[in-house]
Specification:
The protein is α/β, with parallel strands linked by helices. Helix content is about 25%, strand content about 10%. The protein starts with a strand and ends in a 12-residue tail after the last helix.
Length: about 160
Amino acid sequence: MRPNTLALDLEGTLISNAVSQIPRPGLAQFLEDMRSQFDRLVMFTTVPEERARSIAALLVREGTAPAWFAELDYICWSGKTKDLRYVSPHLGSTLLLDDHEPYVHPGQDHLWVEIPLFGSPYLSEDDGLKVASDRLVERLSLLDGDKTGTRRDEHS
């Protein structure tokens, strides 16, 4: 099964943290690229929904995220790990993009795509989203059984 949903972590992944809210370089383009790769993007974060939505709205107002980003579904969850069954009952239909391995639910490692932590000093030349994009394309290719790395939008 090819995953059709991408669950996005917020802190250390897309932005610095919920306090400083520094957007990662290349955020808007990365989000657009992911939107073309997946049928659905969702927010799957430890940041409370009201705060996450406020941050998303700020990023949109600042022009560092596309307008639709503020409307992403927010996944409510509990526990110590991000069980992807909160996103979909069909395990395998969702990939998790996160910088923090301890949040990966046991047995779901194959559905986790690690992104390097976006941490201080928050360099303008940070390439974490490019690294993540490459890793996501590679993971989708492996899960598709397609070793070429061809993107879905290239077939359209």
